[in-house]
Design goal:
Chain lengths: 78, 225
């Protein structure tokens, strides 16, 4: 696998779309390309942000935050 | 679109509860910019790692809408989405120590976590069939929801969000559908091929081309931002 092919596979990898047999090849290439590969995969995770930001934000009940913060503060108490 | 317009339309009220240090450049972030003085996401994550509940509160205010939308896109159920949202922010609190800025941005980490939990939740609760049915109904009403949403007049989007959506909605519908099923439904290429009655090789090509266009579009967008 050359680096261009690795880049294609990386974009599939970060969204979990690689099939098992492709994943094996991908991991081999990942080791081969080392830091360059890790840096590229890191960049590809920007796709996650983009997909989430492409959605219209949804409203959630105020009670959710109240419950969350109560749980967090309760865990902090000795 | 000018930079000043982008910034002015995405500004938020500054919050001073977390001490602010000089912000780092964010190389691949597409997150709307914050008003000077507002803590960055990274600063909030560091404060959460130091067990500051107020920082979690601020992070929640900033991103609960985005994460809820993501969860809803996966499970299509309002009540379950609210429950999951709470669980996910609790996990952000509990797992914050595992976040490393070396590996990516806080929002990317949160989205990855939320997506995984939402897809797991969908499968664990065996709501898959029901969600399928709802999705099917929605798809029949809105053959291409991603494109449809981007043109709804009543939705007011930030400039950043509009630009991202422009990149995505510029894809051919078949590529959008393949990416949508992979990212928001957690489907493998084979599952997508079976669901859409499309050859596996075609699904792979659609995913590869679509993702490359989005990736390249985001790089250009980064330049504009």
């Amino acid at each position: 696998m050359n680096f261009n092919e690795f880049q294609n596979q990386s974009r599939l990898y970060v969204i979990g779309a690689l099939e098992a047999e492709e994943l094996e090849e991908f991991e081999k290439a990942r080791k081969k390309f080392g830091k360059k590969a890790e840096d590229y995969i890191g960049e590809c995770y920007g796709l996650h942000e983009a997909f989430a930001l492409s959605l219209r934000p949804a409203k959630s009940s105020a009670a959710i935050k109240d419950r969350l913060m109560a749980m967090v503060r309760a865990r902090k108490e000795p | 679109m000018g930079r000043s317009k982008l910034i002015s339309s995405t500004r938020r009220k500054p919050r001073k509860r977390v001490r602010v240090t000089k912000s780092r450049t964010r190389p691949f972030s597409v997150v709307p910019q914050l008003e000077p003085g507002a803590p960055s996401d990274l600063e909030l994550m560091k404060a959460i790692q130091a067990e500051d509940p107020d920082a979690l509160s601020q992070l929640y205010d900033r991103y609960n809408g985005i994460l809820k939308a993501l969860i809803l896109r996966v499970i299509h159920n309002e009540a379950e989405a609210d429950d999951l949202l709470q669980e996910i922010f609790m996990e952000i609190w509990n797992q914050a120590k595992n976040f490393s800025s070396q590996k990516g941005k806080p929002l990317g980490w949160m989205v990855t976590l939320a997506r995984r939990r939402a897809i797991d939740g969908l499968r664990k609760k065996q709501a898959y069939a029901r969600a399928e049915e709802r999705l099917q109904n929605e798809t029949e009403q809105q053959p291409d929801a991603w494109v449809h949403n981007s043109t709804e007049e009543e939705i007011v989007l930030s400039d950043t969000r509009s630009l991202i959506r422009k990149v995505i909605s510029g894809l051919p519908p078949a590529q959008q559908q393949a990416i949508d099923l992979a990212f928001f439904r957690g489907m493998s290429q084979r599952e997508i091929a079976a669901k859409t009655n499309t050859p596996l090789g075609t699904v792979k090509t659609r995913l590869e081309l679509g993702l490359k266009k989005i990736y390249d579009g985001l790089k250009e967008l980064r330049g504009e931002l």
